[in-house]
Amino acid sequence: MRYYPIFLNLENKMCLVVGAGAVGRRKIQSLLESGARHVTIVDACEAASELESIIGKGEVDFQCRKFVDSDLDGKFLVIACTSSEEVNQRISDLCAKRGILCNIADQPEKGSFIVPATVKRGDLTVAISTAGQSPALAKCICRDLQDSFGDEYASLIILMGRIRPLMLGLDQGTKHNTAVFRSLVNSNLLAAIKNKNLDAAREILKESLPEPLYANIPEMLDGLI
Predict the structure, then answer these.
(1) What is this structure's pTM?
(2) How far is CA 25 from each of CA 28, 51, 117, 134, rounded to the nearest angstrom?
(3) What range does the domain containing 188 cover?
(4) What is the C-alpha radius of gyration for the chain, rounded to an integer number of angstroms?
(5) Is 108 in the same domain as 127?
């Protein structure tokens, strides 16, 4: 089965994680890092010490009890990672009936989506999936990519994010803007950032950007090199 790749906006979305073991804790942390602000955690055991740093925050609600059907009320996304296949299956079936996105940890075929291995550098996320056939291989590829994408990519994305609204503000048309953006990403700008060569970065921006934006170059590069 080939999954449809998608990136979800979890801002202000209500999420549920059932099971707060080692796998569950990783899932919870991933949700919070992705912007989820309302995460309910249900686990029949007392909260592990590893959860203490996030329990009590406004966006996290830990409930020490068994899962009940009403836990799904109002939820946008659900992750089940309990040690009980029966409970996980029940959650999966209920989510399917309600049209709720559901991930069953370690049993991808029982849920509606899988969580890929990822490499993250700031706002850059590279996702790797083997369609659930070999999570171990996905993680291996992920490790290989760690060396290929350094922190300079995070800085480049910040820079492009600063440039984009200024370019659009010039109202020079999509074709012209696309040419400028392609020129920048195909230039040596990434290398200049990686080598912390401020002079080179300035020159590359001058070569690629329209003259009206020259005065903005110092603020574009501020704090990046």
Answers:
(1) 0.82
(2) 5, 7, 16, 22
(3) 152-221
(4) 22
(5) no
